[in-house]
Structures are given as C-alpha cells and as structure tokens.
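User: Please predict the structure of the protein below. I'd like the answer in structure-token form so I can feed it into my own downstream comparison script.

Assistant: Understood. Taking the following sequence of 464 residues as input:
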Amino acid sequence: MSGFIDSFATGPGQISMIKIASNSDQSKSYDITKDGWPVEFHYYESIFQDVIHASVTYIDTGMVGSQKESIVQGLPITGSETVKLKFSDWNDEELEVELLINKVTEVLADADKSLVTLEMNSKELFDNDKVRINTRFDGAISDHVKKILEDDEYIGTEKTLDIEKTVGTYNKICNNKKPFYMMNWFSTVAAPEGKEGNSAGFLLWETSEGFHFKSIDWLFDSNKNKKKKSVIYTDTPDGGSLPAPPGYDIKAIRFDRDNRNNIKDKLEQGAYSTRLITFNPFNCYYEVTYPNAGNRPAAGGGGGAPGNEKNLELAGENLPVLNPAIKAAKGGKNDFSRTTFKYLDVGTLPEGGGEGEDQEQIKKSKGENADPKNVLNQGIMRMNQMNNMMISLTLPGDFSLHAGDSIFIDSPQLPVAEAKEAEVDSQSGGLYIIRDLCHYMTSTETYTRINAIRDSVGRKGTAS
C-alpha cells in the first residue's frame, strides 16, 4: 500500500510469522511469535548486496515438545534451517520472505531462558557456494545473468526476475567461478540499450520482490524508474510526529547529508575523465580514446567525447562542475585523470556452425569479443559518479520502499535574510535512489532507515 504515512507509523507494526522448520525432521517446525514479540527485528536490502538479510533477537524460554526444551535445542537450530517470515507496517504493507538461518548466537542465558539472535540470508547465497560454472555462454550479458539465476544447473531460483536488456554480445567461459561472482563480473562490462559509447555498468541485487539486474542509467531515469515516494525533512521540534506538508508522502524523523564528492578520490578513480588505450594483437594497431563527462569548462576532450553528461540520465541538473584551472594532461589537448590499458579480445570464442569455408566461426575469427571502447571506461566513470551525494533518513516504518526505488527528498536550505519562511534546498533536493534499506521493529516502534544516493546536483522535478 502506497500513499500517506500517518503520524502513528512509528508505532508497532505486526510480525505475524517467524516460522522455523527443523532440518532433521521436516514435519517439525516452530513459530517463535507464539511466545510474543521478539526483542527486535531487522530486515535489510541493498543495491550493492546480492541477497537480502534479516536478523531477529528473541527470548527463548523453552517451549518445544513434551520435554519443554528451548527452541534452539528442541528443533534443534544448528544453522541453514528454513524460516518463513511475514511482517507488516502500521499501514498494513506486508512483506513475506523465506530465508535460511546463517548463524545462531546465544547472547545471554540463565537457568530458565536465553536471549538468542538468528541471522538469516536468502537460500541463493548458500547455493552459490555449492555451485561452480564451467559452461560457455554466448550472446547478450542479460541472457547470461538470466540463465545463471533461473537454470537448475546453477542458482535455479523460482523468484521473480527483473532484468534489463543489455546491448551487444559477450562470449565467455566461466572457468570454475561461482554464480554471483560471474554475474557481478558481467555487470561491470554490460551496457544498456540506447546508451552505447556513453554509459555502462549494471547492478545485481535482491529485494522481497525478487532479483533485479539494472543499469545505473536506468536507476536514475525518472521515466523508467518511477518515483515511489516524496519525503521532506522540516527540522522542526515535533520530531516527525506531525503529518507531512501537502505534496509529500512522508515526513522524515532524522536527516543526515553527506557530500561524498571527494575530488582527489574522484580524480584517482576516473569518475569524470579517463583515457583508454586499446591494442589489437592481430595487427599491432593501438587506439587512444578519451571518455569524458565534460563537466570542466575550458578543458579539452569534454565536448563530444563518449561519456558526456549530456548523454547520461542524471538525477539532478548536472554533474558537479570542476574548476577549469586544474591542469589537463597532455598540455590541455585531452583531459583525463586515469588511464586504462586493454588488449582487444579478437578471434576468441566466436559462435556459429556450418562446414568448410561456410563455417560461421571462421568468418568471425577476426571479430572482437565485447566492445571495451564503448563499455570499459564508461562503466568505471558511471560507477564512481553514482555515489556523489548521499542522504541518510530515518522514516516512520514504510515497507513499500525497496532498494533501488527512486524517491524525491527535500530539506530546508539556510534561511535567507528577510525571508518569511525557509525554502527547500535547491542543490541537494530532488530525486535519489535508495542504496541501502533497513526495516527495524520492536514491540513498541517501527522505523525504516535508508541511505539514498545520486550522481548529480541541482533540484530537478517536483515532489508532487
């Protein structure tokens, strides 16, 4: 359920099920919510995390079986048990997930009870350690990721997949690697359709709604990744207990802004200007290109270079403008702060059939596998741009939000003299992407804590 989050949303939500099934006896299970509320419950999602994670701390009083053993002893809980969780916020937005126990910790114990913490992850995380990929993959990277996730030979998940189509082909033998390693590796060399030469880089993550494989440009594209909620922080003494102003869905309880655009680090990482040197071992031809965001006035290489910010989907108005007085390499002819060298993958793993001179593999024997000139440095730049700004928010519990969602955030700027009331911050306000999310629940309160990031500055769009 989306919509208005009222002032009571920080009150208790509802944990209706934490049902643990025994590994040794599949017919034996126990729902720890029968004994009342757990001490605390955490649920986590992140676009930089392959799977979801949850933890619950509860009082184990010994209620299982005729011997009245503790839950840990009676089932017993030794690790990898299946846990079915069902929980909802104050507005009846319900999440239902199935996880496996990764770790059991007895925090405190006395003669008749103990305090136990269970840490849980998705089943796919454990399957990942039991699988090695020796297969050859031909075709689009998005097809490789889909196959690894849904094929029973690999991860074999039955969860919903939300996979964005990638452009071009990349043939690869995986050489005994684990599934998530390969999918994350593919993410770094994938480019979205329609952005060839200007943007690259994908992310793989899981939410309660399934697995997602999306480009960085898709995340910041307001036409594709539709705004989920509008949030405002008013810096007033009510602590978020009063309703949000008109045009906003949620009023934040706590707000922390972090300008993560460390210029020295960004230059070293090649966030805005790079040089790529490619070498073809077949004919000894090398080429130098200068992907450049074009966010430094009067610097060389930025005008029509690949990776220019004019061809990117930005959450704000523009990338941070760098001082034109900073030196440009090569006497100003071209502007770069990081160099990447790449041997072209020519003639390896061509696909196709046929016989004799009609063999498709022979015809493709001098073709390039992948396209580093249009992908490699563009992916490096885009990945290092996306964390330019971060805002951390504590919200009334809202379980409709997920990692990867687009939200609109406003906060007051410093009051101007003679102004009757503070206006919203025109530089840091606007669209953000939820990078990390934690739902926190106790018997008396429910909160959602998020870290939201974006690549650019300047308020673009409106909250309503």
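That's the full token string. The radius of gyration is 26 Å.
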